[in-house]
Design goal:
The chain is an alpha+beta fold. About 40% of the residues lie in helices and about 10% in strands. A seven-stranded mixed sheet has the order 14-15-17-16-18-20-19, sandwiched between helices. The C terminus is likely disordered.
Amino acid sequence: MLEQEAAEHMVSPSESLFFSPGTGRRIHYMISKGGSEALLQALTAAAQPEPPDHSTLLPLLRLLARVGQRDQKFGLKVQKADATDTILSLARRNLGHHLYLTHCLWVLRVCASNGEATLGINGAMELLFKVITPYSKRHVRTVRAAIEALAALLKSKSNSRRAVNRGYLGGLLRLYQDWHHNDVSNNYIYIRRGLLLCLKHITNIQLGRETFLGSRGMEILFTSVQDCLSCKNLDPIITTVTQILRKCYPKEPLPLASVRSSYSFPLPRNAKAEPPCEGSEGDYESDGEEEDEKDLDNEDVESKEEDYDLETDVNKLRSRPVLDRPEEELRQYESMCPELSHNFQVLSQCGEKDFKIPLQSWTKKEKCRWDQTDVKRDIAEAAQDAPSCEEEDPASSHVLALRPLPKDAAWCKKMFCSECEDSINPNAGGRLESSYTLTNLLEKHQEDIPFHSPRFYVARAKCVKSIADYKDLAFPDFWGHQPPPYSKPMLERKHGVQSAEETSSLKQPAIGILALIYCSCSSPGAPGCLTFFSKFESGNLRKAIQVREFEYDLIMNADVNSNQHHQWFYFEVRDMKLAVPYRFNIINCEKFNSQFNYGMQLVMYSVKEALQGRPRWLRAGHDICYYKNHYRCSAAAGGGMRGKFYYTLTFSIKFPHKDDVCYLAYHYPYTYSTMMSHLDILEQNRNPKKVYWRQQTLCQTLGGNLCPLLTITAMPESKKGDDLEQFYNRPYVFLMARVHPGESNASWVMKGTLEFLVSSDPIADLLRKCFIFKIVPMLNPDGVINGNHRCSLSGDDLNRQWLTPTSQLHPTIYHAKGLLYYLRSIGRAPLVFCDYHGHSQKKNVFVYGCSIKETLWQAGCMVDTNVITEDVGYRTLPKILDKVAPAFVMNSCSFLVEKSRESTARVVVWKEMGVLRSYTMESTYCGCSHGLYKCTFSLKPSASLHQGLQLGTQELEEMGSKFCLGLLILHLKSLPCSKKVMAQAALLLDLEEEITDRTQRSVIVAFRGFSCETSWCRYVLGLNLQKWTFVMAEVCILGTGMY
């Protein structure tokens, strides 16, 4: 009696406390003080009298259900308190009283969800099946509670096995069919999905899958889901059905003899590559059946496991400047800092004659004169201007040929003069090997593409060393790319496309292999079949299989010396028909989710469009889906690697011309030869009287290619001691890009940075006077050249080698780290270190930084601020970029240090070099969800455009230039500046804030009343928005107190 009174006294105040705002904190506190155990004791006491006092039991059961949801050990506590039989007994006694029964079922569900393993052998399943009835509108709440409890119970594999052995799986299928057919108004979606969850858990075991197939489960679910595809409210049901079908569909290996790369590279003697490192700086990857549990409908799904990966050892988080090599080795890097010992006595001898006219400022007449000279001589001269080629053995360069033009005689006759038609006859092979043909092509159709020259590109491409010994030039890389005049919104996803694609791929077999195309050769396919080719710089497509007349399965090649990292693709396709929607299925993707599910499109380049004056990569493709398929990599096929699942990227595309030559790529390609020729042109463009430029070789890569190192700053204003001292004492900024070859967006951002740094912009001039820039524009040339996505030729992820790099296997990392060590040893550690990357699963541009306090706080550790002190200056630059760069979003940034990232450049430079502002800057492959590029302007009185804009090369280059602007503002805010510099900065950056407000209002007004389908609106979106963005980004933020 006393125990019952105690229970009543406990329940009365607890109900008011735990069913009001702030409940979560109070419940966690109660659990920590033994509240769960006390409630269970009270339940046992309250259930003993006959009949039990339900006025006490009901609120007590409600409390247990609520507290149990937050207590991860609740099931174990129930078992320890011997309360399992009490709960089951209460449920059995109240089978006819649905209110009491429902409360008991809530507690059973919580017990099963949190570790109570004995429920299955105590008769809980039999009890639940008595409660779950065929379709009825009565006692729906009780039926739902029973189904949810059963689903929680079946998460246990032993309980699932028990359910199969007792024949419950067939009963669940019949119950689902009954509720599906009778619930025509879709009022009981949660009950139908609950039954599906039970089936999903049972099919996690092999016995369950076999029984499911034997019970015609595939046919039943496939038929039922067809009725759901048109209704958006039924997406939870469609998703769960798809997961079950995919799980039970017979697994197949990829149609390859081995998933290892078709290319291999012999490693140096005594050098052993480390096991492949999964994961990315910012990307979360995993393998296994548990991926089914991830919510692919939520693009912001950031694995909660990251919190468990946080480094909580303060000693490991503290900066620890140590050397990983003998100190005498650092002397070799003195030669890489010529700016510190440069003799400027010849400064006054520099005249205007040394300054070459920028290529983009030539007149059309001048261009034609230059075009008509002998091509071989031009290429030879360009090769002489290219530093890397000077160091190459002339015998190592090889003959390259441009890929054949479209096989369309009428089009060729229209585009080219009749006397040169024979030389460009595509039927004769179409290769542009004659200098006359190439000269004619360049003369008639070369566009004024800034900072690009086909001649420079050819010269550099001839010096490239590839494993496959490339003989072909891809047309887009040779001809160049001009950004389109407008930005394209993210693709609006049509409802039902993904679900229909996934389910049909699991039920409807392909007609069969109509044609098999290996993409390393250029032989034509069968009649009516597309022809594929990828054996060129950065190309990646291993195999194409025609499965229907206009549908192809495509297989990417793994990284060299690896059996994984399938994401980057870049290939040529020709012999297409006009206005036919071709369907492509890339069937060996690896990441569990992709921005292709949230508005991202691939890119396409048309040769015919380029030769008609529109040389550009464009976002393309519709009905794009990304989903898990039925292919699996076995351990044997994977060369010993554990089995994993693959994902399919599927899209439809209509080519703009018949018999065109088009190129498709994961993202805007940027090859090694493009980078090297770009550096040649930048060096010619610079004004040597103002820009100090030195291009050196950091090292030679495993593949024998050169990794360039740039030094950029301002020339000293005079030979006076004060000016020379200011030159030598400028702080360093160290920038890198493209350690991961598939992240081509990082190179476009770097391109924008480099072009801004050598430009005549007054802000760039002032920035050069403030800093010395050390830049490695491409840290993994071999990976980029050979079409890898993530690794170098050693098969290693180079951004996981910074702790202990070796000069044999990871030369670019070893020497980049050595240079940073040298700068630190002479007291010149960089003020800012930034590694440019691309991110495949997030939108916007953002940075990862390093913070001890934020890491410990996020991990839930107590932080003694008296013991742990930290300069918060690491946040200043991201805050500045959030104001000046339209694509940058501060809210997406993170400053946490994970254990799995301890060997990345960002963390190592922060720890070992003591660089406070050490960052990884991530640029999305997709678009923006915040800021001006989100594009939330009202277009119609009744509609708005919310999907945002996809980032193109122009926006990525803009990000690179805005990063430079952010560095200038950081310098003005963080370092002592002369009055002269401050005056120049104020003059350049001081625009009134009201101009910003007025411009924003003008943008909004301009968008009102225009339909997004009109070309005018696209023009406004693409041109005017970017122009206004530029104006707004230059607003002065000095002295405004906004940080």
